[in-house]
Specification:
alpha/beta; binds adenosine-5'-diphosphate; six-stranded mixed β-sheet; about 25% strand; binds magnesium ion
C-alpha cells in the first residue's frame, strides 16, 4: 500500500486569500503515485481553490509544494501538465461545437511542418486514448455538444490522461451524471489507478468516496481538519469532520 513509500507531491502550509475571504489556511496535503485520494468538504470549504493551486490556476499566498522532494512552483496550467498534473475542471472546458477528436487535443494539437494541424494523427490518437480507457464513443467526428453527460465527462478525462500525467485531478466528476453514467466514470477512475496514475477526486457523494478512495482529506473553512485511510474510518466520522462536530471528546 501507499504508506510504504514517499509521496509524489507534498504540499505544506498552503494559504490563499481572496480580498477579505480566507479560502485556504495552512493546508497540508500529500499525494502518492498509486492512490485515489478524495477531498471532501462543505460548499466554500476550499476544495476548488486547493486544486486550482495544484493545477497552476492560482498561486498560493503562503506555503510550498514539493514534487519528488524538490520545491516546485506550479506557475501555470502548462507547467502543471509538464510536471504530470492534469485537471478535469467542474465545467469540463469542452468546446461544444467541435468534435470529439478536436476536444481531446484542445490546445495541444499535433502539427506537421510546424503549422498544419495533423488531423489524421488527431483521429488516430483520439481512438487510442479512448480505447485505452475502454470508453466507447460512437463517432470521433460527432460534435461534443450532442453527446451525453457521461460521454462528455469521459472525453474531458481522456484529454487529461492523454498527457500521461502522474496525477489526474477531478472536481466533482459525477455531479451532473445519472447512476449508470456515474458508475462508468468511477470504473474509469479505478482503471486509471490500476494503470499507475494517481487520482485526486472532489466529491460530495459519500458512497462514492467510500467505494473508490484509498484516503480521504476533509477541508472545513479552508483548513485540513482530517486525513484518514478509508479502511480506518467511517462515513459517520467523515461527515462529522465535514460539519465540525467533534468526535471522541464527549461533546
Ligand atoms: N476567485 C474568487 N474570488 C473571491 N472569492 C473566492 C474565489 N474563489 C473562491 N472564493 C471563496 O473562497 C472560498 C472557498 O471556495 P472554493 O474553493 O470554491 O470552495 P469549494 O470548492 O470547497 O466549494 C469561498 O468562500 C469562496 O467564495
Ligand atoms: Mg468547488
Amino acid at each position: 500500500m501507499s504508506s510504504s513509500h514517499e509521496p509524489f507531491l507534498v504540499a505544506r502550509g498552503l494559504s490563499k486569500n481572496f480580498a477579505n475571504v480566507s479560502a485556504l489556511q495552512g493546508v497540508d496535503l500529500d499525494i502518492f503515485d498509486d492512490e485515489i485520494l478524495a477531498v471532501v468538504g462543505d460548499n466554500g470549504a476550499g476544495k476548488s481553490t486547493l486544486i486550482k493551486i495544484l493545477s497552476g490556476a492560482h498561486q498560493p499566498d503562503h506555503g510550498e509544494i514539493r514534487i519528488d522532494g524538490k520545491i516546485t512552483r506550479i506557475t501555470d496550467p502548462l507547467r502543471a501538465r509538464a510536471l504530470g498534473i492534469s485537471t478535469v475542471y467542474q465545467n469540463l472546458a469542452l468546446v461544444d461545437l467541435r468534435d470529439v477528436a478536436a476536444n481531446l487535443y484542445l490546445g495541444c494539437e499535433p502539427v506537421r511542418w510546424g503549422w498544419f494541424i495533423d488531423r489524421q494523427a488527431m483521429l488516430d490518437g483520439a481512438r487510442k486514448v479512448l480505447a485505452d480507457l475502454k470508453v466507447h464513443i460512437p463517432s470521433l467526428t460527432a460534435e461534443v455538444g450532442q453527446l451525453s453527460g457521461g460521454q462528455r465527462q469521459s472525453i474531458a478525462i481522456g484529454r487529461a490522461t492523454s498527457h500521461r500525467g502522474r496525477v489526474i485531478i477531478m472536481d466533482e466528476p459525477t455531479a451532473a451524471l445519472g447512476v449508470k453514467e456515474s458508475q462508468k466514470v468511477l470504473d474509469l477512475i479505478i482503471r486509471l489507478k490500476e494503470a499507475g496514475t494517481a487520482v485526486l477526486i472532489i466529491s460530495h457523494n459519500m458512497r462514492q468516496v467510500f467505494t473508490i478512495a484509498d484516503r480521504i482529506v476533509v477541508l472545513r473553512h479552508g483548513r485540513n481538519v482530517g486525513t484518514r485511510w478509508r479502511s480506518e474510518t467511517t462515513p459517520d466520522e467523515i461527515v462529522k469532520l465535514i460539519v465540525g462536530i467533534e468526535t471522541g471528546q464527549g461533546v
